[in-house]
Design a protein that fits this description.
Blueprint: H1 5-11, H2 20-31, H3 33-40, H4 48-71, H5 77-83, H6 94-98, H7 104-115, H8 126-135, E1 147-153, E2 159-165, E3 169-176, H9 185-196, E4 200-207, E5 221-224, H10 225-239, H11 245-262, H12 269-277, H13 279-306, E6 318-324, E7 331-340, E8 343-352, E9 355-364, H14 367-376, E10 381-383, E11 390-392, E12 399-400, H15 405-420
Helix pairs in contact: 2-4, 8-10, 13-15
Length: about 425
């Protein structure tokens, strides 16, 4: 048993043992405590050293028992998993699929388009009014005279992300997603003042993580994307009546993308707590699953190597390959057979922990034609799901996981020959 310094200090205190050597001797005696107690019966009265040692032995037993309870595997951790609410998988937005969400320039370009009420999106001043609500309740947007510019160059050659300009006001916006706000805000501020021509100036630092106000921001008002998107969502229906359908989808995708970026994790708290409490058991289980996957792939490769397609006489070529699922416990050796120009059939020889099975796919052509072709070959199948799979249901449909590879090879070759034999129609 290895005892940490913290445990030793809590259970025994540092002063009860002269050094580590004495402590190890004490542990050795403690492991044989019952034998020691039996021997105490040989004495008319217990020795003095026993009166000192026995309390320490009792405390060590208490420590061992507590340690065992803390480390006892959670026997029902799999049943606890079943009690978790259904996993809500977060769907990727188009921006996330395209790989753009982390690019500030892309987000600033989208803001420029929707901030200008004169663009073809049809939302009018939705984004401007949402921003105005957060900046100043008295700010009134003017749809007719709005201009929105990108990367405005200052006298010192610095670039401000966005400038919204009207006859009555000018708004400077620095857009930040993940980078720290180390920009030359005082230079931005001077540029806005020199361009204002007496108009009201508003300065905004729009960021994914809300920045704290500070003198270094030179008057730029920190606004978080969470509040900005909340305002847009609140006003959305009122402005969407005349909106372009395509640009409505784009805006909703942008909003969802930014909300996804704000979420620190897609795992719900209850599920995260489950993984935290059962971390060791799950790690052990994943190790066992990894070993099972390796064994399945080894068996599939053995099968592939023992089958020589040259032994299958067929007028067209037969393609083959391997596939395995990244989520399910299934490994596959597949064959693609051309039935005719417009009809290609795929045979999957599948291995799962349950055992071996076969299924068929339509790689090219209608599934019903594939099913009809199999029926003509007296190969019994039935639909499995809407993904066009046909499961083999013949008398020899199942093979045990631990069946020898020679028997599985014979089973597979037999099916390949049945699939590639020509159909001989009866004479009329």
């Amino acid at each position: 048993m290895v005892m940490s310094e913290q445990d030793r200090e809590f259970w025994f205190g540092y002063n009860e043992f002269a050094d580590d050597a004495e402590f190890r001797v004490f542990q050795a005696w403690a492991y044989n405590g019952s034998c020691i107690q039996q021997r105490m019966g040989l004495f008319e009265s217990p020795p003095a050293w026993w009166e000192i040692l026995k309390p320490k032995i009792d405390r060590l037993k208490n420590y061992q028992q507590a340690n065992i309870e803390l480390r006892k595997p959670t026997d029902n951790f799999l049943s606890e998993l079943k009690k978790l609410p259904p996993l809500q998988r977060r769907q990727q937005t188009f921006m996330e699929i395209a790989g753009y969400p982390h690019f500030e320039n892309s987000c600033s370009n989208i803001l420029q388009f929707y901030l200008n009420p004169n663009n073809e999106h049809g939302f009018g001043t939705l984004l401007l009014d949402s921003l105005a609500t957060l900046i100043n309740a008295d700010l009134v947007t003017d749809e007719q005279s709005i201009e929105v510019r990108r990367e405005e160059l200052t006298a010192r050659r610095n670039r401000l992300d966005l400038i919204v300009e009207s006859n009555n006001y000018i708004i400077g916006i620095e857009n930040k997603l993940f980078a720290k706000a180390y920009n030359p805000f005082c230079d931005y501020s001077r540029h806005l003042e020199s361009s204002s021509k007496g108009r009201q100036i508003y300065k905004v630092l729009l960021s994914l993580r809300l920045e704290q106000p500070s003198p270094e921001l030179c008057g730029f008002q920190p606004i978080g994307y969470d509040l900005f998107l909340q305002e847009i969502s609140t006003k959305f229906d009122a402005y969407a009546q005349n909106a372009n359908e395509q640009h409505t989808i784009f805006l909703q995708d942008f909003i969802q993308t930014m909300q996804n970026l704000q979420s620190p994790t897609s795992i719900d708290p209850q599920r995260l707590e489950y993984f935290r409490n059962n971390h060791q058991e799950i790690t052990t289980l994943l190790g066992e699953v990894d070993e099972l996957r390796k064994d399945m792939r080894r068996k599939i490769k053995q099968l592939e190597q023992t089958i020589d397609l040259k032994d299958i006489s067929y007028s067209s070529s037969i393609e083959s390959g391997l596939w395995k699922s990244s989520t399910d416990l299934i490994d596959v050796l597949w064959y693609i057979i051309q039935i005719e120009n417009s009809l290609w059939l795929q045979l999957d020889v599948c291995l799962t922990p349950i055992g071996w099975k076969m299924q068929f796919w339509s790689r090219k052509g209608d599934r019903m034609k594939i099913k009809q072709h199999l029926q003509e070959l007296n190969i019994d199948v039935e639909p499995y799901d809407k993904n066009s799979r046909l499961i083999y249901k013949g008398k020899d449909k199942d093979r045990a996981y631990n069946m020898d590879i020679e028997s599985v090879t014979t089973w597979t070759i037999d099916m390949l020959r049945r699939l590639t034999n020509p159909i001989i129609l009866p004479e009329s």
